[in-house]
Design goal:
Helix content: 10-25%
Largest sheet: 8 strands, antiparallel
Low-confidence stretches: 42-53
Number of strands: 21
Shape: globular
Strand content: 35-45%
Strand order of the largest sheet: 7-8-9-10-19-14-13-12
Distance between the termini: 35 Å
Length: about 290
Amino acid sequence: MQLDLKLIPFGRQLSRHMIYEETDNRAVGWAKGLYLAIAAESSGSFIGGPMLGPKGFALITPTSGGNPLDYSYTAVPSLVTLKAGKGTARFALDGAKVLRVEGSGLGLRLSGRLGFGSIAITTPRGVELTMAGGVYLITAKKGTLSLDCHWDLKALHSTDPIITIEPDASGVFELVIYDTDDAYELPAAAASLDQCAAASEADYRAFAEKLIKLPADNRGFYDFCTYALWTGFQSFQNKAFAPVNKMSDQTIYAVEQPILTLPLLDASHAADLITGTLEFATPQGMLPA
């Protein structure tokens, strides 16, 4: 199954990490391209709705010698592959909390955007962005990692961060990116990116096996819906629920969860979705909407 990241972001079940393609469909001048994103509540509003603009916080630009490169990409449920000239960068999720990135023959520039109250700093662990209710920690296993961000005394806020990744002497880099918090309880990383992609593929296939099947002539639509449902679930209070929209609205409504059971063959999973929100009932028996 090939993914169009303009239509649906790359991700994984229970993970907040996402990659998507910004198209500036509102024609307001936002930079087009692939973005790193993370599922989090919007920090701003405009006329009652989310702030207009890209949903991601870091524009991904492949580079050579510091200069931007034109690129193309392909995406499947377990892997995003970016190609620029003779160089390649690959992205895969290592479980729910870790994004792995490997590159060869190129570097990367991550042009970030910080919301209100967010900061970007360099620490002995790597580059840390305090945002989205946690810490987005970027570490380099191979290659070099640098951050350009400072406090603007006139504007009274930090400048938007520019994170530069350069390959090592052998021409490769490897990043491990954690969705964590200030306790820094980091999960163990898998041995390789290929192992991460294989585990994601296996998880996706196992999830698909628990859904009803459609006729072969509807395969493309079926695969799209399966992937959307798989990536849509998020962890909340140690349970898996689906928000309204993982990209733009993480509100979880009790009334919507039973609808998601319609394609499920697994009765225990369906029961968990239907009854899971009962644990959050008030003493008066009221449930979150």
